Amino acid sequence: MFRYISVNLAFQKPTWQSQTLLNYSSDKAVDGRFKTYSIQENECAVSGENVEDVTWYVDLESIQSINSMTIIYRTDGLEWHKTIPSIVTITKPVQARYVTYYNTRKGDLSTKPGYSATASFGLCEVYIRENLAKFHPTSSSPDLGFSFMGSGRAVDGRKTDLSAFGGQCYISGNGRPYVLWRVDLLNIRSIERIAIYYRTDNQRWGAYASRFKGFSLIISNTTNHRDGVTCYKDDRLTKTTVHPVLEITCFGVGRYVIYYNERLPEYGSRLGYSQHAFAELCEVEVYGKHI
Q1: What is the 3-state secondary structure (H, E, C) of the chain?
Q2: What is the pLDDT of residues 124-146, one digit of tens each?
Q3: pTM (2 d.p.)
Q4: What domains are there in the chain, each with its CATH number?
């Protein structure tokens, strides 16, 4: 079952579709109702029948910084046996106002194996997310001094290479009792979720888990982490339960998002924790809304 994990930029925004079956209108795909993925509950936008082309779009009303889109397709509560999943998430950072769903059965597509003879859609929800942190100013303390490991690497939208030397990760200095990384969202935002992609060196996860543990996420209106509110503090994750990609519920209102970790003397002998503090952040994504 899919659930909302941050603000949907498309929620209750103007929509349109080229054909409509009965009363399954275009707005049903952005109304926030998709419990059963079913037309029986009037949850889905459904196109007309026996046509070659179908189109649906949502108007976000202004240009938005889109990070990803999720399509929840109609299943009518039945088990889904298709090779394509009924819930598809597409990560494609883009600046745009309109998001369009289009399908066709022109040419030989109508007779292609596994394809329906006519075009149609059943969109139970279209969910669009914005990464509030992408390309925004960052700072850190301490760092190694190499530009290809600098703090901005954690908000450049790249996360295909989770290694220290791949040019996509921020890597902190070594042998320190604390580390701090922050991103400036430029304005006060309402924050709901934060995703972190940690360094793995593109190997099986485990080598850097002890460095990741114990971190805090802080939302602040100043650059000083002591002025902020801690929306998440890891004190339960173990070396086996901490994962290199975490998406964390982190409610708060503020301009700065701060990642902080420390290794005070009592942490040095704590089982499963590294001796020193590290921040090895390949991407930090912040989800929420403008206020």
Answers
A1: CCCCCCCCCCCCCCEEECCCCCCCCHHHHHCCCCCCCCCCCCCCEECCCCECEEEEEEEEEEEEEEEEEEEEECCCCCCCCCCCCCEEEEEEEEEEEEEEEEEECCHHHHHCCCCCCCECCEEEEEEEEECCCCCCCEEEECECCCHHHCHHHHHCCCCCCCCCCCCCCEEECCCECEEEEEEEEEEEEEEEEEEEEECCCCCCCCCCHHHHCCCEEEEECCCCHHHCEEEEECCCCCCCCCCCEEEEEEEEEEEEEEEEEECCHHHHCCCCCCCCECCEEEEEEEEEEEC
A2: 999 998 899 999 999 998 888 78
A3: 0.74
A4: 15-130 (2.60.120.260), 138-290 (2.60.120.260)
